[in-house]
Specification:
3 domains; 6-stranded antiparallel barrel
Length: 488
């Protein structure tokens, strides 16, 4: 019995060795997968996009761009107001309340991109907003004090200038040529880690993430048509470069979409074609010359397509025309569908606004339309927000911001009921001269130092030549006349 047990044990061990040998020999053919916890033996496969091509020199692209990206630091203050109540100050607002002013110091940091050898730098408006002092450090560690040339909140862009010559700068690429899946590099200074380069692909184009507001004073609408990438971007990358594998600037990194405030897989950049136009306007004119096509538009949804019997949902539906607008002058009609601008296809409202935003008032564009089943083309001369093709002076915009007001002409009914010849009606107030003087919204300015005012343009023209104290006179819609004074 004992001998049988020993014999059985020996045969079992021998059989195990034979089985193991067969397993090792035939393992590759059987397709058996080994599981291991050793990190060096595992590999993650990206099923969404291919690996970077071995034929592209990413090192050269990074080296070509890294010296053109700077570190931006700011020091400034924020002024904010809170309503307080004082019965002895009831004459300020009539309800006994007044503004209590507070000043809060702030510091900020971000990135910027050198776009000319003369020292012009583009960054995000939110990087330098409220800054009293802007300091720029190049990749070679040289530091400069930067001058703010101008900014545009509606695209979140700003232009700086440093006193330097023949410095390394980036060359603009054509963001219209970007393709989804194309590899890109993000260059910036996340978390104050200077000269950091990350890589990713273009995940989507023409993204509207609803983070930019319209300019409340000029009433210019924001343009959101972001390039979405999966290149890692974090706080401090704002204002930095998004470049293609040639090292060309194809975007300005601006935002991330995250629940934590840090990178979570989505980052967004302003396309270079928009950047180039905004920067050029600011340098040449001091402000952005926004062009308008003069239409009310909407995306083509499934519901609209069924209602209007539209087969192709790509394009932009025109549901209204501005009086004396460019589109109406060109013969465009309600119900037309915009398919392309200057041969570049537009699939949605974001793409249309971004494309028109690349042009100035007075420029002529070719608009491809679908009218019913017929394809037509119209040549459209773009106009500014005032309905003309003229360049809007920086002095006018600056004066509106100094006053802190959105102005309109009073209605015909108001002119008749109040027995005035015209004026400049204060539609909205923001921090500025008028708000500080105690003036309230709805006030119609009819005189400045006894000089008659019949329109907003006349008001701005008069005030541009004023120095020292100014006395304005006017009337509220309820018929109450009032006087306000402030210094220019």
């Amino acid at each position: 019995m004992k001998k049988n047990l020993i014999y059985g044990l020996i045969m079992a061990i021998l059989g195990g060795f034979i089985s193991l040998s067969i397993y090792k020999v035939f393992e590759p053919e059987l397709g058996i997968v080994k599981h291991t916890d050793k990190q060096e033996e595992s590999k993650l496969v990206n099923l969404i996009s291919p690996e970077p091509s071995a034929n592209v020199d990413y090192i050269t692209a990074a080296e070509a761009s890294i010296d053109g990206v700077v570190h931006v630091k700011t020091v400034g203050t924020v002024e904010y107001h809170q309503r307080a109540f004082d019965p002895f100050r009831h004459f300020f607002y009539g309800d006994g309340s007044y503004h209590q002013k507070y000043i809060q110091p702030i510091k900020g940091a971000g990135s910027g991109v050198i776009i000319s050898p003369e020292g012009y730098i583009v960054t995000n408006n939110h990087v330098i907003e409220n800054a009293d002092k802007i300091e720029v450090t190049l990749n070679n560690k040289k530091t400069y004090t930067a001058e703010l040339i101008g900014r545009d909140p509606t695209t979140d862009l700003a232009v700086l200038k440093i006193e330097a010559n023949n410095i390394h700068h980036l060359i603009y690429g054509n963001s219209d040529n970007l393709r989804i899946g194309e590899w890109v590099l993000a260059v910036g200074n996340p978390f104050n880690l200077t000269s950091t380069v990350t890589a990713g692909i273009v995940s989507a184009k023409s993204r509207d993430i609803n983070i930019l507001g319209s300019d409340p004073i000029t009433n210019m609408s924001s343009i959101e048509s972001f390039i979405q990438t999966d290149a890692a971007v974090n706080p401090g990358n704002s204002g930095g470069a998004l470049v293609n594998t040639k090292g060309e600037l194809i975007g300005i990194n601006t935002a991330i979409k995250s629940n934590t405030g840090s990178y979570a897989g989505y980052s967004f950049a302003i396309p270079s074609n928009i950047v180039r136009k905004v920067v050029s306007d600011i340098i040449e004119f001091g402000n952005v010359q926004r062009a308008y096509i003069g239409v009310s538009i909407q995306n083509i949804t499934q519901e609209l397509a069924e209602e209007k019997d539209i087969e192709d949902l790509n394009g932009v539906y025109i549901n209204g025309l501005a009086e004396n607008g460019s589109a109406k002058d060109a013969g465009i009609k309600e119900g037309d569908i915009v398919k392309a601008i200057n041969g570049i296809a537009v699939k949605n409202a974001n793409e249309l606004q971004a494309k028109v935003g690349e042009y100035r008032p007075g420029d002529e564009i070719e608009v491809s339309l679908l009218r019913g089943e017929k394809e037509i083309t119209k040549k459209v001369v773009l106009k500014n927000m005032e309905g003309s093709t003229e360049i809007i002076s920086n002095d006018k915009v600056d004066m509106l911001k100094l006053l802190g007001a959105k102005l309109e002409s009073p209605s015909k009914e108001e002119i008749k009921d109040l027995e005035i010849k015209g004026g400049a009606k204060v539609m909205s107030l923001f921090p500025g001269k008028l708000q500080k003087s105690g003036l309230r919204e709805g006030f119609i300015i009819t005189k400045v130092d006894n000089a008659l005012v019949e329109s907003p343009d006349e008001l701005l023209e008069i005030l541009q030549n004023k120095k020292g104290g100014v006395l304005i006179q006017g009337i509220y819609p309820n018929g109450r006349e009032a006087f306000y004074g402030f210094g220019m």
